[in-house]
């Protein structure tokens, strides 16, 4: 059975989206990006909400931008090779290959997808992930924690859900960013 992974860059105080401004430094350097490439290369399907998809669709054409470094080109190739499912009631069409739209998030459909999949899946974006977490679908959590506390926004973990997790690995990058991998018990 494939695993469902939730991963986001988060602020030091636990926000995946800041109310104002970015989440802080550390996430955009080559060392971190190469680590992310290697970590998520085996993923076969990305589950996105509309807003996250609109951010990530950049990777459909990133390889056409002149003078891209190798780690960016590699991520674009990996992203293009994966299936993408966008959960949206408003999105009319998609602008990337291997992408479909679902109008509702159905936990039983995700369970079936996990059972049938040959490769792991990710759920991306705090709003969609909150639904997957509440339905007890997420197997692994990868937090990329910046050095900045932002004071508010959308939390990485949804309110009202208790999780008991085991720490699998950690890594600290030269930028100060920390990767923490947790697995559900």
UniProtKB/TrEMBL annotation:
Domain of life: Bacteria
Domain Bacterial bifunctional deaminase-reductase C-terminal: 4-177
InterPro entries the record matches: DHFR-like_dom_sf, RibDG_C, Riboflavin_Biosynth_HTPR
Alphabetized Pfam families for the sequence: RibD_C
GO molecular function list: 5-amino-6-(5-phosphoribosylamino)uracil reductase activity
GO terms for biological process, alphabetical: riboflavin biosynthetic process
Identification of the protein by name: Dihydrofolate reductase
Source organism (scientific name): Actinokineospora cianjurensis
């Amino acid at each position: 059975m494939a695993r469902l992974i939730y991963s986001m860059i988060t602020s030091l105080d636990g926000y995946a989206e800041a109310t104002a401004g970015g989440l802080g430094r550390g996430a955009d350097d080559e060392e971190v990006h190469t680590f992310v490439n290697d970590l998520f290369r085996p993923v076969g399907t990305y589950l996105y909400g509309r807003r996250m998809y609109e951010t990530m669709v950049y990777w459909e054409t990133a390889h056409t931008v002149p003078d891209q470094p190798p780690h960016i080109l590699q991520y674009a190739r990996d992203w293009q090779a994966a299936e993408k499912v966008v959960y949206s009631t408003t999105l009319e069409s998609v602008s990337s290959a291997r992408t479909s739209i679902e109008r509702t998030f159905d936990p039983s459909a995700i369970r079936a997808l996990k059972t049938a999949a040959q490769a792991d899946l990710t759920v991306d974006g705090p709003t969609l992930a909150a639904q997957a977490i509440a339905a007890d679908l997420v197997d692994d959590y990868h937090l990329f924690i910046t050095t900045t506390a932002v004071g508010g926004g959308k939390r990485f973990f949804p309110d009202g859900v208790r999780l008991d997790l085991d720490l699998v690995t950690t890594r600290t990058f030269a930028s100060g960013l920390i990767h923490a991998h947790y697995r559900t018990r």
